[in-house]
Design goal:
By secondary structure, the protein is an alpha/beta fold. The chain is built from three helices and eight strands. It has one domain (2-140): D-tyrosyl-trna(Tyr) Deacylase, Chain: A. Strands 1, 2, 3, 6, 7 and 8 form a six-stranded mixed β-sheet that branches. A two-stranded antiparallel ribbon has the order 4-5. The longest helix is centred in the C-terminal third of the chain and has 17 residues, at 99-115. Its main location: cytoplasm.
């Protein structure tokens, strides 16, 4: 399971021109779920995300987590994070989990964020053609992969 965490001032998801989710300060998370991923990867990644200290404290140090700050999280499914670009010029997405399994793990990841103490979790619309807007803060962008945690 892979996640791109972007610290944002604000972020939103629109579908067909209508905003379906919006957050103020917090994390925009692009979540890629691979075929071999399961509940354990979702739990580990959610706990790491909630406790990752990348928000500034009163001294300007990256010393606080989303959990400690009470900031929001917007989770957007993104199977293209599972792209294999080793051969040729067209990415292969065969490593991505099938849609039904991916949706279940996407929802599990959001549930584990809630269990970890994140109070406001917004989502995109799984499988939809979404337009994602954000104001990156810092910019601070972190790539997490459960194979490396």
């Amino acid at each position: 399971m892979k996640a791109v965490l972007q610290r944002v001032q604000e972020a939103s998801v629109s579908i067909n021109g209508d905003v379906v989710s919006h957050i103020s300060k917090g994390f925009l998370i692009l979540l890629g779920i691979e075929a071999q991923d399961g509940e354990e990867q979702a739990r580990i990644l959610a706990n790491k995300t909630a406790s990752l200290r990348v928000f500034e404290d009163e001294n300007g140090k990256l010393n606080l987590s989303a959990l400690e700050t009470g900031f929001s999280v917007l989770v957007v499914s993104n199977f293209t994070l599972c792209a294999d670009c080793k051969k040729g010029k067209r990415p292969s997405f065969t490593k991505a989990a099938p849609p039904k399994e991916a949706k279940n793990l996407y929802e599990a990841f959001c549930g584990y964020l809630k269990d970890a103490g994140i109070s406001e979790i917004k989502t995109g619309c799984f499988g939809a053609d979404m337009k994602v807007s954000l104001v990156n803060d810092g910019p601070v962008t972190i790539l997490l992969d459960t194979k490396e945690l």
